[in-house]
Design a protein that fits this description.
Number of helices: 64
Shape: globular
Oligomer: single chain
Structural class: mainly alpha
Helix content: 40-55%
Strand content: 5-15%
Radius of gyration: 40 Å
Length: about 1450
């Protein structure tokens, strides 16, 4: 559609996206005068087309209309050229314009303008209003231009009291309603100009456009004026402009105004037909306007109901079309519209099924982000899809049937597991699990409300009652039930997908709601499956153990109820299988225990529980089997089960008796019984059940045996791998069943907002009543009320008090301050000190423009340190001293939880008394800054007494963890989920309020947790507050379940960044000085290079990678195998290990020791800043570094196997000598002769020509003058001891100590004990990375010109999957700045690696270009090469040429 009024333009060169940009006063004045002149010269300007611009010009209303016009210089120049005037005339006019321009600008500067410099002039508004009421279109046009500009730079604050929104809106709406323009008092020129612009047919579009723009600007400036806009009928007028669409620019402007109204009053817009009007001519709009139209529609749909359903039906074809658009934003907004349609009509099945068609469901299904889906939506939009599926599955059995037929269960399985085998939940979609489980539960047919699921099952008896109940059942049959009956293959497929998946979900979550959904899903699956399917599906599923665990723990009545239903269904359908299993697993035993419980006979039927037990809002948080009618129903179910399904069996008794005998023999330390136990475990699929394991006493006997004999090797020899694996599996089941660790949450944290965004708890404030004691405290500071952030430390309070008390001491006449002091009022002012505490000091961010030209700013001491000491503040709560490093919340948490009835959870509205004293601390008592170890003083939890089942299981697993069984077998999914959940409470973590069990388990049994959880624990407890908050904010920003509106995110300050510019050729020297200056500061380093454009994350990552290589150079002589005289890097196939320091070269040793200290700082800084380094350390290095492992030949085997083999040969001489001296049949002279004749491998020791120097380094003497002392059969033991000590003991002790000192300057290195040595090696250097095509296609994103189906993109993935190790490192170095992937591989890379299309410029083709990168965003800009071979060639060139610079960025 043509733009109808393009012939009349008010300004030049603007676009629609510029509507609200401010312009200068001079431009406004010039443009206003130009518009007057344009109207007078319309004939002369005939045929000249000018562009439209939203930055409408203004002129002062008090200026006379006939004043000489002031022209825009460029426009007037064009007019003079059009007239073909003489050069002199043109120059005179041009000079005149420039002079007037200067005069006007000077006048503006002298007088100023209240409109733009301060508050508007009321008289000016009155003048504009008068002009708007005038029928003269020219005056209206000028007034509208001026009003639009004023409103575009105004706010509600400076308009209040000056601007009458009611009067202005009334006139603006009237102008927009005008069907024609009154042409009276217009001269012929103006009439002609308006005719040319079609202004005499249907109203002047420019005037209406400006009036509409004024409404938009007004709603931006004064959102509260929306009610007035609606009152004066603006919505109807705007809708008319959208429906008539005579002028596309006017229609789009009306759309912008309607969007602002719909954001606040959606019901009013829907009532006037705005929903259908916004999308009526959708395809004619620009892409920006299309997004606005969909946003308007989505806002309107917040208030749709049955009355507005015709409008909804009218727009559904448009929404069906827009969901196929290529623009991602359009698709996402369309999905949001469907979300609101489905959720608003979920209680009206008829409307829902009419609005949502099967074709739509298929389209939405195609957008699910399953692995490899090219049309997949982003994670945030996937949450919208889930909301649609949730509404459909909840409300419409017919549409649910279609989803089941499409295979949505299979899609959910792929998403949650990423097709991993064995099943492992993908952490990316962890937050989506509750919603997906709700959809799955609702997709399956509902359970019948009669028979065994009836709430009145045990009240009504007899056939009459049964017939009555049956008659009350609805006559309509659920189509899903019919489908399940007719399609057993589909039921089998659903079972095979869901059973292992939801069992894994139950194990890996502590969310009670999710667990309820899992157990209810099991009930539905078992109920609607026939015995054949159940036999096939549950053949290898330990369901009996699963049910036994639920009945033992009794976490919630609903879980117990579902478990009883499952046991009854299974024993009905598969009695031969589950009667035996239930007895051996203790299910029958637990049901018997429940059946003997008491209940109130007068309780009403359990109807409320059965109807709403899956609605969390209606459930009290209770454990056990509940009370009242719920308890009665559960006990009756258990009693019914025992009466009808249990029988005495001797088989269980015989097996339990046999196991008891084995346990008794083991307790008597009979190792031969281990073989019998192993055979028993491997003799059947089941082996020993967890119930038998406990009740037979076997677990205690095994623990006693392993504790007393301390011979795990013999234990492992007697057990086969399969038996050992089954034993650990049973121990895992017992641990999951009996552990009772509770997740600690912040006091008063039940708000749904905090559950959605736990980080918001960090922004909360607490009130502290400070009571000063002692004569050193001024009276005005003895009673203070302080409001502070909950995560602030008492050290902040100390600084606050010391500064003010000192000021009061210096000026006793100072006015008394208010009693209410607000500490850390705004979160944006918060910064962090070395310990991660919040400080109130103003942050100074240094920007090093030259190579480390300045020293860092030194923070002033918070204490007024005098000669010989300084003042300190000591805080007390209930006369108990509080450490100044304790957070305020931690003190309050301990205060509330320790008092009787302390968990009243009203801490945020209360104040807490804190006593403080001011004391003088001598300089000799000054505390040394030593990093605290997170696991330094671990308290054993109260529930972990030595007689508890849980404690015995943990100790037994700890003993078995030293066997050769794979470490993954010892990971407990339930405890891992619980630990992860605990670490998701930032206020608890930041305040060091983690429960004792978290520290104890990590310290005593870290093998229970995977690497990711242990590393997360280190990050949460050792890295300090600043990093904790930075990590949390990063996680929240990536969370797809978070709302799109970021205004609700709490502002917790930002990490201070230190930018440093260095020279690339001085990498190691620069790194040393940077770490000396900034290593101990909490700032995050950002590196730039002199003479290069790169900045941000990419250059910083390259700095860490390049410095890693610098530390590995031969010339530094730091590592074993290094040759100071050669170039290149140390070749250490088994990892880098420190080179022994010779005592003869003190100067060189001092330099190397300093380098190791710098290396320790470098490694710690990389960990803190989440940077990747590339140093391949030897595992033996970490053994000595962390455990202070004693020197031994075993260590040397890990460091240098060749040398260890040679030393082993020498050890044979020693052993032979010992044998000779141990032979009492020979005399001493005979022994000495025999010793001298000892031969090993055909050689005497003297033939080896060894001296007391270190093998491989003749300059290193093992003892004084060692080079002149030969190794003989008489001193070979001393030689071996000295060699071992030099390599793994005293020879490297200085380097180890220096590394620890450097590392400890940032955080305690001992906290790395949670990681294994191989994990530490992978963390800092060599690691296995998955570069398979499937992994790459799932983790690399195509965008901006490429799609997942693009041929060039597929070629790239093929090339990457075929790369060898060296090319992979080159590619990563080129594209990300680091030669390694982060922990977690491609999946953990942030930002997500993205490939975009580089468009060639004519006349060049794509094959003429090289790929380029944006390392900060992990962007690869790849031309669309014609062949795979050309792509390979160009990529190789870029990787080679772009290695050490940012010239291809």
């Amino acid at each position: 559609m043509e733009h109808k009024y393009k012939k009349l333009k008010l300004t030049k060169g603007s676009s629609q996206s510029d509507q609200h940009k401010p312009i200068t006063r001079l431009q406004k004045r010039k443009q206003s005068e130009l518009n007057k002149e344009m109207n007078k010269k319309s004939k002369m300007l005939k045929g000249k087309e000018k562009e439209d611009d939203k930055l409408m010009t203004k002129r002062k209303s008090e200026e006379p209309v006939d004043e000489k016009p002031f022209f825009d210089c460029n426009e007037e120049k064009e007019e003079w050229e059009d007239k073909k005037c003489s050069e002199d005339e043109f120059q005179d006019a041009w000079n005149e314009i420039q002079e007037e321009e200067v005069e006007e600008e000077e006048e503006e500067e002298e007088t100023g303008s209240s409109q733009f410099m301060g508050y508007p002039d009321p008289s000016r508004f009155r003048s504009i209003l008068v002009s708007l009421k005038n029928q003269d279109s020219t005056m209206q046009l000028i007034a509208l231009q001026e009003l639009s500009e004023i409103l575009s730079v105004s706010s509600e604050e400076n308009l209040a009291g000056y601007f009458s929104s009611d009067n202005f809106i009334k006139e603006l709406v009237r102008i927009m309603k005008s069907d024609d323009i009154i042409c009276t008092e217009m001269d012929d020129d103006m009439m002609l100009a308006l005719a040319m612009s079609e202004g005499l047919s249907g109203g002047n579009p420019e005037i209406m456009l400006l009036a509409c723009r004024c409404i938009c600007n007004l709603l931006d400036a004064m959102p509260t004026a929306v009610t007035t806009v609606v009152f004066h009928g603006a919505i109807r007028v705007l809708c008319q402009k959208l429906k008539s669409i005579q002028y596309i620019d006017l229609a789009e402007q009306a759309l912008y105004a309607l969007e602002k109204i719909a954001g606040q009053l959606p019901r009013a817009v829907v009532h006037e037909g705005g929903l259908s009007a916004a999308l009526m001519y959708f395809d004619f709009f620009s892409i920006h306007a299309q997004r606005i139209a969909l946003r308007t529609a989505s806002n309107c749909m917040r208030s749709i109901d049955t009355d507005s359903f015709p409008q909804v039906l009218e727009i559904t074809p448009t929404l069906m079309n827009t969901i196929h658009y290529s623009d991602r934003t359009v698709v996402e907004l369309t999905c949001l519209c469907w979300v609101r349609i489905s959720e608003n009509y979920r209680n009206d099945r008829d409307c829902l099924e009419r609005a949502i068609s099967v074709d739509l469901i298929k389209t939405l299904f195609s957008l699910i982000p399953t692995p490899g889906n090219a049309n997949a939506v982003r994670p945030s939009t996937f949450q919208d899809l889930l909301r649609i599926f949730r509404a459909i599955s909840k409300s419409s059995p017919l549409l649910s049937l279609e989803l089941l037929k499409l295979g949505i269960i299979d899609s959910f399985y792929q998403i949650l597991t990423n097709n991993s085998q064995p099943i492992q939940l993908d952490s990316k979609w962890r937050d989506s699990v509750p919603t997906i489980m709700k959809i799955i539960v609702d997709l399956l047919p509902s359970l019948p409300k009669d028979d065994m699921f009836s709430s009145r099952r045990f009240k009504e008896t007899g056939p009459v009652a049964s017939r009555t109940r049956s008659s009350r059942v609805a006559t309509t049959i659920d189509p899903r039930v019919m489908l399940f009956e007719e399609s057993p293959d589909l039921v089998l497929t659903i079972n095979q997908l869901l059973v292992p998946l939801i069992l894994d979900i139950y194990t890996s979550t502590v969310n009670l709601r999710v667990r309820q959904l899992v157990t209810h899903t099991f009930v539905k699956l078992i109920h609607y499956s026939n015995p054949t399917i159940l036999t096939q599906v549950f053949k290898s599923v330990p369901l009996s153990s699963f049910l036994s665990g639920i009945l033992t723990r009794q976490e919630h009545p609903t879980l117990v109820l579902d478990a009883l239903y499952q046991t009854e269904l299974l024993i009905k359908k598969l009695p031969l299988v589950y009667t035996f299993l239930f007895e051996r697993e203790g299910v029958i035993h637990e049901i018997e225990v429940i059946s003997r419980l008491t209940y109130d006979e007068d309780s009403e039927p359990a109807e409320p529980l059965l109807r709403s037990r899956y609605d969390p809002l209606l459930q009290p948080e209770e454990k056990g089997i509940g009370k009242g009618s719920t308890r009665k129903h559960i006990v009756q179910l258990a009693q019914y089960f025992i009466q009808h399904y249990t029988h005495s069996h001797d088989q269980q008794g015989s097996s339990l008796k046999e196991i008891t005998e084995i346990a008794a023999d083991l307790e008597c330390l009979k190792p031969e019984k281990l073989k019998r136990l192993s055979d028993y475990l491997s003799g059947s699929n089941m082996g020993i059940s967890s119930f038998e394991f406990i009740n037979s006493g076997l677990m205690k006997s095994l623990l006693v045996y392993l504790t007393k004999t301390d011979d795990v090797g013999l234990f492992e020899q007697m057990f086969s791998t399969d038996s050992l694996k089954k034993l650990v599996e049973r121990l895992q089941e017992i641990l999951s069943r009996f552990e009772s660790f509770e997740v600690v949450t912040p006091l008063e944290s039940s708000s749904s907002d905090n559950l959605k965004n736990p980080t918001s708890m960090l922004a909360k404030q607490l009130r502290i009543r400070l009571v000063g004691e002692g004569s050193d405290i001024p009276n005005s500071y003895k009673q203070l009320m302080v409001s502070t952030h909950a995560v602030a430390t008492f050290r902040v309070l100390e600084e606050y008090l010391l500064a003010r008390i000192q000021a009061a001491d210096e000026d006793d006449d100072e006015d008394e301050e208010e009693s209410e002091h607000f500490l850390i009022e705004e979160a944006e002012d918060m910064e962090m000190d070395d310990d991660g505490d919040i400080t109130m000091n103003e942050t100074v961010i240094m920007k090093e423009e030259d190579l480390l030209a300045e020293e860092p700013p030194k923070a002033e001491s918070s204490s007024q340190v005098k000669e010989g000491g300084g003042w300190k503040i000591r805080f007390f709560m209930r006369d108990k001293l509080i450490s100044n490093d304790t957070t305020v919340y931690a003190a309050v948490h301990q205060y509330k939880t320790s008092e009787p009835g302390g968990l009243t959870r009203t801490i945020w509205n209360s104040s807490f008394p804190v006593t403080y004293k001011r004391i003088w601390v001598p300089a000799s008592d000054k505390e040394n800054k030593v990093p605290d170890r997170a696991l330094a003083d671990v308290t054993q939890p109260e529930e972990m007494n030595e007689d508890s089942v849980c404690y015995q299981v943990l100790m037994l697993m700890k003993a078995l963890s030293h066997t050769s069984l794979p470490k993954v077998e010892f990971i407990n999914r339930k405890l891992t989920a619980k630990m992860n959940r605990q670490l998701e409470e930032p206020l608890i973590v930041a305040s060091a309020c983690l429960p004792d069990w978290a520290y104890w388990l990590m310290n005593e049994t870290p093998f229970l947790f995977p690497f990711e959880t242990r590393y997360l624990f280190i990050q949460s407890t050792s890295f300090g507050y600043a990093r904790l908050i930075g990590r949390w904010q990063s996680i929240q920003s990536r969370n797809p379940s978070q709302p799109r509106d970021e205004s609700h995110q709490p502002s917790l300050g930002r990490m201070e960044r230190q930018k440093v510019r260095i020279a690339r050729h001085q990498m190691l020297e620069s790194a040393t000085k940077i770490l000396d200056l900034f290593g101990s500061l909490p700032t995050v380093l950002e590196i730039e290079y002199v003479g290069e454009e790169g900045t941000g994350l990419g250059p910083t990552l390259e700095f860490y990678a390049a410095t890693s290589k610098e530390f590995s150079k031969n010339s530094l002589d730091m590592w074993r195998g290094s040759d100071k005289s050669s170039t290149g890097y140390v070749h250490a196939p088994l990892g880098l290990f420190p080179k022994s320091l010779s005592k003869s070269n003190e100067h060189s040793n001092k330099k190397i020791v300093q380098l190791f200290k710098t290396l320790g700082q470098f490694v710690a800084k990389a960990l803190l800043d989440f940077r990747i380094i590339d140093i391949f350390f030897s595992p033996a290095f970490f053994k000595i570094l962390l455990n202070q492992t004693k020197p031994s030949l075993e260590l040397i085997k890990e460091i240098d196997p060749v040398l260890a083999k040679s030393l082993g040969k020498l050890q044979l001489y020693v052993e032979e000598k010992r044998k000779i001296y141990a032979n009492n049949t020979k005399s001493l002279p005979e022994k000495m002769k025999a010793v001298d004749r000892i031969v090993v491998d055909g050689a005497r020791l003297s033939d080896l020509c060894l001296d007391f120097t270190l093998p491989g380094d003749p300059s290193y003497e093992l003892k004084d003058k060692g080079s002149g002392i030969n190794v003989t059969i008489h001193n070979v033991e001393e030689y071996l001891d000295l060699v071992v000590d030099s390599i793994t003991g005293s020879g490297i002790s200085q380097q180890i100590s220096a590394f620890r000192d450097g590392f400890n300057g940032l955080f305690s290195i001992d906290d790395l004990h949670l990681l294994s040595y191989s994990e530490l090696v992978s963390l800092f250097g060599k690691a296995n990375e998955d570069w398979s095509y499937a992994t790459l296609s799932d983790t690399i994103k195509a965008d901006h010109g490429f799609s997942m189906e693009s041929e060039a993109f597929k070629h790239l993935l093929e090339i990457l999957s075929e790369m060898d190790s060296s090319h992979r490192r080159q590619f990563l170095q080129f594209t990300t700045g680091s030669p390694r992937l982060p922990i977690g591989g491609w999946k953990a890379l942030r930002p997500v690696f993205t490939v975009v299309r580089k468009v060639p410029e004519s006349p060049l083709s794509a094959d003429d270009y090289l790929p380029s990168v944006m390392t900060c965003a992990n962007y690869l800009k790849m031309p669309e090469y014609s062949t795979k071979s050309i792509m390979q060639l160009k990529l190789d060139i870029s990787m080679t040429e772009g290695q050490n610079s940012f010239l291809l960025s």
